[in-house]
Amino acid sequence: MCNANGDQPIRLKRRPIAQSIENLDELLSLEKGRMSRDVFWDKDIYEQEIERIFARCWLFVAHESQIPKAGDYVTTYMGEDNVLIVRQKDGSIKGFLNTCPHRGNKVCFADLGNARQFVCNYHGWAFGIDGGLKGMTASETYEAAGLDKSEHGLHPVAHIDSYRGLIFATLDPDAPSLADYLGDMRYYLDAIFDMDEGGTEFIGGCVKSVIQCNWKYASENFVGDILHALWTHDSGAKAMVGGPVAEVHKTPEQSYHVNFNGHGWEFNQDIVGNCATLGEKELLKYLYVLQPKVAERLGEVRSKMIGAISSCTLFPNTSFLPGQNTFRTWHPRGPGQIELHTWTFVNKKAPQEIKDMWRKGTMMTFSPSGVFEMDDGENWEYSTRSNAGFVTRQQDLYLGLGQDTRVEGTDLPGNVFQGQINEANQRAFYQRWLDLMKADSWKTVPQRDVPKMKEGV
């Protein structure tokens, strides 16, 4: 891979970090709805995930509203690789590993800001916002040693691209395009991130927390587990709005699970179900007024998704909840820990008082002290921790709900399943996980789903 200036630096040949695990097929029997607990506990499996999933997939790294001006930057993670995302002078966006090529120190310690250059604290190496090495303290000693500055810029991410304001990057130069990677999910993303002219923005900063759980528990929960909400969050919903979570399983004809290559979205068509849990009538009014306009732009089906009971995970570790407007990434920190980054997203053209209500509401529900997040965090931690037992790990887990609920002939893109009490999206998530874990490169990753969505739609 080239350095920041486009030159080809000398690279030492290295073997892959993870030794390929040969018996992965034995860990999953998705057609029977069974899986091994080792998927959540084994350290070798985790190391292979870091190499074959997080160093390979397109990962969410920023929202365009966070870096509007040249020199604006955010720091984040791609797996366990710390990266620096920077707006360039020409308006483009570049990404780099946040590590100095001299001795490896971080070059930027802030979460976000604006800079004309980044200077390493250790030996004073200075890098432009384009990643190029501009100079260093005692530069004459490096010149005497024959150092070529063009070969020692910040190491770039392989590709960076955006969709509806969401910026993604990949560390694999052979990765498919972002459009191909998202595929049919773009149709559904438009319902939330393009529901209003002007798009969306992040507000209120980033909330960071640590949960002692495996990253897949969080991702698969948001990929389509409405069932837990009816039980786990019942008391929290009563505290917020004085009533139980809606019994969506009683309206299966209005409920769907859709997935494409591991991405999954479950949704009901009740327009405001998720939003109602925030207890703000003005937010409901805002969505009801907006809904006919969305129907005109995006069609009736998507207009009923704008704040409905729903959740989404973009494989592998980005999730959000429409209506409650929480957006989060589950950064792996070993098989038993994640670092959670959470934001609030709103329509950019929404009135300020509406934005403030959403920010307050998301903090009350999905933050470290939120009534729903405390429920989820405890469940995920104990689900992970219980796998420490040797005999416990010999017992399979079940994910077989909704095996025969796929529907054909709908206008909805992706793989479509009807009925919201379902684990179809979880099975699709783990099938994608297995395909990537077994593949030596993107060329050997199975293409199980053919996109139905037309370009430009």
From TrEMBL:
**Would I find Iron-sulfur among this entry's keywords?**
yes
Keywords in alphabetical order, please: 2Fe-2S, Aromatic hydrocarbons catabolism, Dioxygenase, Iron, Iron-sulfur, Metal-binding, NAD, Oxidoreductase
Q: Which GO terms describe its molecular function?
A: 2 iron, 2 sulfur cluster binding; dioxygenase activity; iron ion binding
Tell me the domain of life. Answer: Bacteria
Q: Which InterPro entries match?
A: ARHD_Rieske_2Fe_2S, RHO_NdoB-like_C, Rieske_2Fe-2S, Rieske_2Fe-2S_sf, Ring_hydroxy_dOase_asu_C_dom, Rng_hydr_dOase-A
Task: Please tell me whether the keyword Iron-sulfur is annotated for this protein.
Answer: yes
Give the Rieske domain ranges. Answer: 59-134
Of which family is this protein a member?
Belongs to the bacterial ring-hydroxylating dioxygenase alpha subunit family.
Please state what the protein is called: Rieske 2Fe-2S domain-containing protein
Q: Lineage, please?
A: Bacteria, Pseudomonadati, Pseudomonadota, Betaproteobacteria, Rhodocyclales
